[in-house]
Amino acid sequence: MGVMRLGYAHVRVTDMAEAKNHYANTMGLYETHSDVTAEGAKRTFYKAWDEWDHHSVVLEEGGVGVVKYGWKVQYESDIDEIEAKAQAFGVTVERMSRGENPEIGDGIRFTTPSDHVFEVYHQATLIGTEVGTHNPDSFPRHLVGVGVPALDHSLITAEDPGLMDRFLTEVFDFYATERVQTTLDDDAEIIATWMTSNNQIHQLAVLAGPQGKLHHFAFRLGDWSEVGRAADLFSMDDVPIDVGPTRHGITRGQTVYFFDPSGNRNEVFAGGYLAYPDRPTNVWTPEKLGKGVFYHARELNDAFTSVLT
Amino acid sequence: MPTVTIHPTGEVIFLDPEETVLSGLYKAGYAYTVGCRRGGCGICKVDCREGTFVYNRPIADSVISDEERTDGTCLSCRAVPEGDITIEMRDGDVRLVNKFLRDINERARQRAEALARAQADLASATTSKE
Ligand code: FES
Ligand SMILES: [Fe+2]
Predict the structure, then answer these.
(1) Residue of A10, A116, A215, A248 marked active site
(2) Residue A35 lies in a domain
C-alpha cells in the first residue's frame, strides 16, 4: 500500500519550556522521550493518546518552522520502491539507519522539490494507545487540555505546487482530493493541492508560497463540539487563535487555526468526507478561495497566505 | 514606564514595564497587522526611529536577519522598549478599535507624567534648601 500516514512532524521551537507547556498541557500530548542532539539542541518527543507508535511530534529547540516529516509505509519493501521512484523523479535519496531518529527504523531521506526534508520508514517502536487493545475503553478518562487523539496532516508552501502534486503522485502514489487552480482549463496552474494515499481527506497539502516553509500541522478531533471546546481552552490558556472555529469549504473539515508559543501555526481538524481515488477531484478557482478556506467568513485574512514559519 | 510614539501620526501609548510594543498597542485599544503574536512569522515588523528595545525571547534567524538586528527593524510582538521609543508602522496605520482602552491608557500616562513632575519638583526644592 505504500505510505500509510504522516508519521511524524519534527518542528523547531524557540523556547523548549514554553513549547512543552503548550504541546503537553494545552494539546494533551504524552511525552515519550527527550534528548539533546550532538549539536546541543534539546529535543522532546510526543505521541497523542490514540497513536501507538513511539512519537508523532518532535520539538527541537532553536529557530522556528519544520525540520522534517516522517512518512510511515506499510511494508519494508515500500521503502525501496519509493527510493526508486524518487530517484526516477530526479531527487537525491540517502539511506538513514535505525536509531538516527530515536525509536525509528531504517529508511530513506530526501529533500522534495519544495525544499522540505522527508523521511520514509517502516518500523517504529510500538508503545500502544492509551486505551490498549484488549477490551479497550473509548477514550482515556484523564485527558489533559484538548486531549487530541492523533496528528492528522500538514500544509506546506512551495513555489510550484503543481510540481509537488506531480511529485507526490509519482513518488508516494498520492492522489489529489481537492485543488485550487487558476482556471478550469487544462493548462491551468495549480495554486494549491490536497493529497492523500487513502480515505483520509488529506495527509499533506501544498500551497503556493516560499520554498521550505510550514503553514501549519494539524491534530485530529472528532466533531464540531470538540473543535469548539478546543477553542475555549485556547482562550483559557492565552493561545493566539488565528481563525475559527469555522469550516473549510475545501475538505469540509471543521477547524481552528492557532499558534504555538514559537509562532508555528497549529490546527485542530475534525470531519472531512471520505476520500477515494476514483472520486472526481474538487476544483476551486481563486474568486472562491475565501469560501474554500473559510466557509463562513468567505474571505481570506491577512495572515493566511503570508504568516508562515 | 516607557511610551511608544507612532511616527508620523503622533499617537502616544503608555506601556507597562516588561510589556511588548504589540501587546501595549493592543492594550491601548489599537490594532494592526499581526500573525502569530509569538515571534515566529515576522509579519509584525515595524521600524524603530528613536530609542532602544530588547527582545524578551530568542528570535529565530529566519525571522530577523543579521542586518535587521541592527537596522532599526523591530519585531513588535517580542520587543520590549528600554525607554521611550518612536516607531513607524510598515504596513498601513494602526487602527483604533477600542476607544475606552485608549482613554484609560491616556489617563494612565497623564497620571504618570504628573507624578514624575511632582517628584522632580520635590527633588529640586529639597536641593535648593540645602
Ligand atoms: S506576529 Fe508573528 S512575529 Fe510578531
Ligand atoms: Fe489543515
Answers:
(1) A248
(2) yes
Q: Give the separation between CA A285 and CA A191, rounded to whole angstroms.
A: 9
Per-residue cell: B129:
534648601
Which residue is catalytic, options A60, A202, A215, A226? A202
CATH of the domain at A250: 3.10.180.10
Instruction: Please indicate, yes or no, if residue A137 is contained in any of the structural domains.
Output: no
Nearest residue to A206 via CA among A253, A265, A166, A263: A166
Mean predicted confidence (pLDDT) in B33-50: 95
A175 and A260 belong to one structural domain? yes
A266 plus A166 within the same structural domain? yes
Q: Which residues of chain A have pLDDT under 70?
A: none
A263 closest CB neighbour out of B33, B36, B61: B36
Model pLDDT, residue B49: 94
Contacts across the A-B interface (CB distance below 8 Å): 68
Query: Looking at residue B92, what is its pLDDT?
Result: 82
Whether residues A28 and A158 share a domain: the answer is no
Write the CATH number for B99: 3.10.20.30
**pTM greater than 0.80 (yes/no):** yes
Query: A86-142, pLDDT tens digit by residue?
Result: 999 999 999 999 999 999 999 999 999 999 999 999 999 999 999 999 999 999 999
Using only the alpha carbons of chain A, give its radius of gyration: 18
Domain limits for position A17? 3-121
Q: How far is B59 from chain A (nearest CA, A)?
A: 7
Is the pLDDT assigned to residue B130 strictly greater than 60? no
Locus of grid cell 482602552: B101
Domain with B29, as residue range(s), is 3-129
Whether residue A132 is contained in a domain is answered as no
Contact A262 B40 (CB under 8 A): yes
Cβ contact A169:A85 at 8 Å? no
Percent of chain A with pLDDT over 70: 100
Q: Running DSSP on this structure, what letter comes out for residue A25?
A: I
The C-alpha cell that represents B82 in the structure block = 528600554
CA distance A150 to A158: 26
Domain tally for chain B? 1
Interatomic CA distance for residues A135 and A131, integer angstroms = 9
Give me the residue label for grid cell 484523564: A142
Ligand 1 in reach of B59 Cβ (< 6 A) = no
Task: Enumerate the H helices of chain A as residue ranges.
Answer: 16-20, 76-89, 161-172, 224-236, 289-293, 302-306
Q: How far, in Å, CA of B48 to CA of B29, rounded? A: 21
Please confirm, yes or no, whether A54 is among the known catalytic residues.
no
